[in-house]
Amino acid sequence: DAGVIQSPRHEVTEMGQEVTLRCKPISGHDYLFWYRQTMMRGLELLIYFNNNVPIDDSGMPEDRFSAKMPNASFSTLKIQPSEPRDSAVYFCASERVGNTIYFGEGSWLTVV
Amino acid sequence: RKEVEQDPGPFNVPEGATVAFNCTYSNSASQSFFWYRQDCRKEPKLLMSVYSSGNEDGRFTAQLNRASQYISLLIRDSKLSDSATYLCVVRRMDSSYKLIFGSGTRLLVRP
Q1: What integer pLDDT is reported at residue B60 of this predicted model?
Q2: ∠ at Cα A102 (B87, A96), nearest 5°?
Q3: In this predicted structure, what is the pLDDT of residue B95?
């Protein structure tokens, strides 16, 4: 069974550009989470979905960040416009309720 | 104050040593507790769940003290391959389904 699949694995972009990160959760999982990890702040929950519906986006840092889940097998996290302080590893994770959460390998974002 | 607090370390120990990590959580509504392991430049992976009665998985023992809001992880007979960051994780018992991660404790096991 394939795990959580994220793309791109690495992205380097210039300040002001739009960044789109993609995630395919594990089939049958009804929760999807987007986390951001930095050395300074650790692993922070940005937003999570239940059955494709956003439940809590209180962790989204500001209006430049948006996330969508148009169907059960796909989600995007978009940053527009990107800033150097957005440089981080962005993890997508999925879970079947009551079971273990599984993380993707992460998208390593550098904004210069 | 962070909802889940851990000593960042690093803990630098020789092979074969016993090492213990501690974690405190501030939200009394926390329901479920876990230890995750994260290797350098990798994603976090579940190491073990933590049960009220304490539980053991091979060389790893986890303890929970709800009254003190305290979780621990004990690693016996440390191996070089145990070198990683150990993340304390709690899930709340409220309307949210959030997993809250501590910042992690880094362990270095030397030959």
Answers
A1: 97
A2: 120
A3: 62
